């Protein structure tokens, strides 16, 4: 029995001869299977068991920041004959057999040029851009609905009316700023999700002050407050979930 430790972002190639009859169980963190064509495969969480023989998986990688561990058992002839094709009915049964054997350790550090960090950053940025489009759409529709019920969006200073395209552009700009903050925190912070939520909520609260200072009528001020909260309700949960998924 072996224990494979994958540090954050680490990748280890699957050698067919070593995994011919081996059965693995993720005991800590998460492990992602890398498919034959290099594309990312399924992510296995704690207590997930797997065989690799004949699957076409060419590598195991840790998509998170914490060290992941996989316990690997290569059953002997007796174990194979006295059990089914999948010899372990449960994780605990396999743990009992493992504990009766000598444990050897293998530690895999981050692979040169394949740490997985660029992939995580690109994935977060992609999620953020999709969320930005959703926030722009939702906010513009909300502004159009407000106009339909009589909100004029007129700001006394200058006597100008805020146009719908202006609402979409401002929403898109500040949503992209939020994505940049999230990417930066994923890159440099040890707790990116928590820090992002704290930062985004604080900035949202600050953004609620200008409508009160605009001098607009009550309906316009109320609508502007709502238009600040709509994109926040889209962007903050989406980016926070994405950050958590990439740091587990």
TrEMBL record:
Residues 81-101 are annotated as: Disordered. The chain crosses the membrane at residues 124-146, 166-188, 195-213, 219-240. This is Integral membrane protein. Residues 86-95 have a biased composition (Basic and acidic residues). InterPro entries: DUF6069 (IPR045713). It holds the Pfam family DUF6069. Keywords: Membrane, Transmembrane, Transmembrane helix.
């Amino acid at each position: 029995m072996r224990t494979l430790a994958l540090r954050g972002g680490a990748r280890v190639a699957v050698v067919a001869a070593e995994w011919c009859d081996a059965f693995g169980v993720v005991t800590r963190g998460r492990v992602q299977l890398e498919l034959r064509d290099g594309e990312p495969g399924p992510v296995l969480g704690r207590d997930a068991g797997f065989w690799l023989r004949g699957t076409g998986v060419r590598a195991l990688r840790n998509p998170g920041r914490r060290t992941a561990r996989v316990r690997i058992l290569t059953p002997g002839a007796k174990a194979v004959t006295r059990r089914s094709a999948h010899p372990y009915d449960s994780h605990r049964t396999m743990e009992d057999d493992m504990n009766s054997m000598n444990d050897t350790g293998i530690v895999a550090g981050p692979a040169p040029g394949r740490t997985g960090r660029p992939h995580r950053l690109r994935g977060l940025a992609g999620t953020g851009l999709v969320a930005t489009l959703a926030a722009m759409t939702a906010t513009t529709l909300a502004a159009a609905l407000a106009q339909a019920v009589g909100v004029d969006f007129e700001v006394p200073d200058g006597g100008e009316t805020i146009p719908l395209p202006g609402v979409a552009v401002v929403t898109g700009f500040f949503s992209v700023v939020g994505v940049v903050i999230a990417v930066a925190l994923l890159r440099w912070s040890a707790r990116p999700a928590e820090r992002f939520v704290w930062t985004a909520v604080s900035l949202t609260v600050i953004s609620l002050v200008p409508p009160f200072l605009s001098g607009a009528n009550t309906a316009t001020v109320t609508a502007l407050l709502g238009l600040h909260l709509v994109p926040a309700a889209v962007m903050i949960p989406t980016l926070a979930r994405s950050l958590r998924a990439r740091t587990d």
